[in-house]
Amino acid sequence: MTLPPSPAAQQPLRKSAQRLRWFVDAFEKQVRNTEAQTKNSFSVDRDALAQVFVEWLQAFDAQKPARDEDKEAYVGFAAGLMLKALVENRPVKLAHLAERADETNPAYFWPEGYLYVAFCLNVRGLVLEADFQSTQELSAVLSEARTWWSFRENVSEDPSLAIAFLDLFAGDEPEWTAPGLFKSGRIHELAGRFYKEDTLPPTD
Amino acid sequence: MTPKLPVPGFLSDISMPLRDALRGVASVADVTEDVLAPAAQLLPEPLSSQFRGALGSLESAGKRLIHAPVDHSSVASASQFLTGEDTGRDAMVSAARVVVFAWEHLAEGGDDGPYLISETIAAERLSHYLDAESSGPGAARAARILTDIRNSSAIGRAPGLVKGTTPEGQGKIDLALLAIASWALAKRSATLEEEDVLLDLAMALVRAMRIDTDRTFSDPEYLSGLLTETAAHL
Three-state secondary structure along B120-187? Predict the structure, then answer.
């Protein structure tokens, strides 16, 4: 996916994403890409998209971490907040489902949900790459029909679970119990799961 | 010896009141056609068609003639006047034109009722801000100018004569003014077409923010902060 350029050359991508014009442009590019790939077609309500942006920005600002070492982990959390706002406000409607669509494929099982997830994962991956020189390793469950069935069922009852599901799709450890709360220092907690204790530097 | 007439303080563009008059004509024709539609149906042909045709011509002639030239540089100039970067007369005239252009652009896409704007009255209010030092820089100055236009008779059912706004109508006027000011203060787009899109996004943004407009226009500091925030996120 090609996202719009940052307004200022020196501005980090995560800052550009906090402008409505960038968000709408990026989202509409995602719609066109997904339409080309799936042959589904969608209609977009820009007022609802502005509502998504405002709700996301408020939620984003409410838990923005002060510590530099939390900023990378917050990118993933912020992408989850975006998915939550999209699922709640539903700014997109399926206008036409592709002919002979296989509904076990997530893109046809829940076309709007697939579009939202694709957008959030793309923005998440690009911000991590551009601003933190880090890569996103997507999980295999992203193409599993039963995971998508569970995703759709669960977020319809509790939209905050979208944050945990996006972590799952992105290959991170989901926080199922309180997905709407960002945990400071989570990057160290995640690191602890992947490195053996004896490889970590000794502490005083 | 005949005394020399004083040069009007703000009215450097004589076509301003003319455009205001045509705005009124176009609007009256528009409303008249709606109001008289049931009666017009009672007229026998060809009188009925001729009546509708006459109103249609009047309306479209007015609409064609009312648009003052607005280009990308005048949008930038208007923005500079609002923020105090350029407080000259040319920037002030651009600001009046651009505010009216933006008002009419938003009115085209909305269902906000027949509220008109007078370019002449807007320019007269803006002329009070030709001196930058008296009104301060940036969003605070824009907030003061916006409140001034809002509290004047520049916008209403018959600008300068009858404001005629309901509380609901005033709420819609306030949101449109906030959108226009947020757009004017935001980073400029590359083309006039993109500016049109940005203005629509500004309207969508202020609507989505569910702003308490009564509080906003009674608290200059709050309004200034709000404009800074919306412009930064547009």
Answer: HHHHHHHHHHCCHHHCCCHHHHHHHHHHHHHHCCCEECECCCECCCCHHHHHHHHHHHHHHHHHHHCC
